[in-house]
Amino acid sequence: MLVKIVRNESLFSMLKAEAILVMLIIACLFTRGQERIKISGIIKDTSGMILRNADMLIMSPMDTLGSISGNDGTFTFYIRYATKYELSVTMEGYTKFEKIITIDPYARAIRIPPIILSPEYKQLVSVEVHSMKPITRIEDTLIYHAGAYPVRAGATLDRLLKRLPGMDWDQDGNLIAEGTKITRILINGQDFAAKDLETALTNLPADIIDKVEVIEDYGDKAKLTGVKSGEPEKVLNIVLKVDKRNGDVNRIEAGLGTEGKYTGALFSELFSGDRQMTINAKDVNTSLLGNQQEKRIEFGYTDKWNPKWSGTALLSSWSDKHSSATSFNQYNYFAGSQSQLQETSRDSGGNQNKLFSYTLNYVPEINTQMRTNAFLANSHNPESMASEYISSVEDTGFTKTVNSNTLNLSQINELTTGVNFYFQRTEPRSNQKMSFEASYQYSAKQQRETDQSQTQTEADDIYQMSFLDDLVYTSTIDSKLSTKLSYFFPLGKKSLLEVGYAWNYTSTENNRITKAPDSGKGTPIVVDSLSNDYKFITTYNRLFAGYATQLKKYNLSIGIAYQPTSQQGQTIGTGPDQAHHYFIMLPLAQVSYSFSPGQKCNFEYNGASSGPSLQQIQPVINLSNPQYPVQGNPDLKPSYTHTANLHYQNSSVKSNQYWGFMFGLTYKATTNSIIANLVHPQDTSVVIQQTYFLNANGTSSLSADYRLDFPALLKKHIHISAFGIIGESQNALMTDNMPYKVIAKSWVQRLKVSLNLPDIMEAEFFGSYSYNISRYSAGSGNSFSYPGLDWSFKCHQEFLQKWILEYYLSQEFSELPSKALQGNPPLLNISIQRDIFARNQARISFSINNLLNESASYAQNVGSTGITQSKVIAINRYILLTIALNGETFRKK
Question: What is the C-alpha separation between 299 and 283, in angstroms, rounded?
């Protein structure tokens, strides 16, 4: 504001100037009184642990505001200016905190020192606790109070989670919360040092847990802007009891069995305030499918050194040795032909892997945050596979059968590293926000492969024998560098404008040398037609702009990106370079509406581009499998996919009851799809099928899925859940140079029924039925359909206080061509366990695996053009005797 004062000797002018000055002063004071000031800070306990969901109240003569501390223990108030404020903080189990805050007259934002809450220790005399509130929900966090769900002494975290309404396991062993898969685990708000969810579930004791929190994490952008878009990641946060945050938890297990089976494991977790250290080691060989020896040792570390710095680190080494025997039948149906492949193989090999990773967080002040994470990994994988197969192709007036014995020996060494950096900043005065991301990844892979085969080919009563003995050296170097810068400008209190720029560079260098014995001396010589040195580079620049707004019930985001892209391919030493330049527009729209904390609806539309892979674009024949050679096409264009997705969720969680319904609808349409042209030579060569690549239009899909969790029945002991997926897709295909379309329909229905009698029995029944049908638009109009069925039953029974009986029974059904659905032999595992000592600190387990002594495990996989049915040879019935010891020690800080 610019004020110009003009000197005037008249009294009237002097009075007028004074009046104006007084009014300006009053206006300034009034404006200052309406201005809002930002007050922020963090809440911890005396051990330095951050405290989430603490109740807060700040009062002044002009305002009274209430709030809770966030997931990271921080809080922020925007309150009208005053010279003094009264702040109070309360939380169950801690003494009340009260403080008077005095504000500098010229301050616009202040950060108060960390608020420390002291544990509240009270001597209770003749007090009987009758109940506690089992569940609370605060915004995007569902909180279970573990004390309301008692479990058996010595039980681990997974046994506690089975008691919590809304928590479940699916048929694949994934942990589910309110119908959505849990992907990450935290302990006291920090990443679990060992990273692995299963390790925490099966080793952490239930009696040290105060709360179990399920958090919906919408990502960095939502935390920065407050606008929640897309589907959140479900994160499990384990809050330890106040007196269990300084100590250690230990578990050791050893077992020995027949058929060379054994197990050994060690787990140790150290807690010291914000610090966590984990040792996790195991050496096991318990698989039913051949010989599977696995060794692993991990060291994990998590700490928060001060309010500004925190981080995690993981050092891991694991290896395995495996050998197995497999047989499978593969049936493929095309518009004018069909093929069948029968193969038996023996596979043996091993993997040696090492990994180091870390994440470092730096928060210099409330408005700035930085994060760096990096990893370094190395692997060595030798493999040997001997195969014998018969393949037949039937076409109009032509039949070809190939009998082959092959031996493939390979060794792969790979080094991979990467680093990521993230920065975000909020300007206190303007409330403008920005974020910057940068990442670099590098991979170098060396592969040595020996391919030997002896093949007999019969084509229309003409026989031919052939031999192959190739030695292939492959070197591949991949590198990727990307950056992204975003600015967010506020357009009012709840809306913002986003503008940004992104740049991405990807490079792949592939050098392949193929050697074969010459016809004279038999010494290996380079085969130029099967060797190449190829470099492939993709670069894109992306400019984008968007608008987002957040109201009480809904979030809206719309945007568009302009992306010029270039692809360059170079075959070093031969032929001209290939270069393609194009640009695409990438739209984005997302809207979500929250009817209530448990009832939400989300719609999202986006466009995405996907370029060809190295194998698809490399102009050289890949003879890794001589009967199935593959040749790339350097003129391929990237595909472009439109995706629209609607998701609805409605659920209710109460102390001992849960019901929920989820529904999703997804539509995709792709232009310039990269498809394979499968050519079946009508000759006496060993080649069964040649693969080429091209672009085609006409690919789309529509699918719907649902999940329904019924309210518990029979005094809330029986829980029934149903899951279903139905879909139809139209795919552009080409076989023997003839383009056509295939329409594939699929339906999958799953059912789970569980019985839960606390401290007596937990039983679960899974059933799954699938049906697939495909129809072709050209040729003979072939069509095929295949159903599938599988079921399993597992039970956990507790009796005589110290005894546990567990058993698992499963069976699969599959259909062969021209035959009805047939059942495969069932699998039965059983174990009996005995807890020892007063607090069940030890357990002895006696188990019999593959009790019915079945010879194989069966699986069926159905695609749009065929079906693969596999059988893995199982070992004989074996017995395993295991003993496990648990211990925990806790102390005051």
Answer: 15
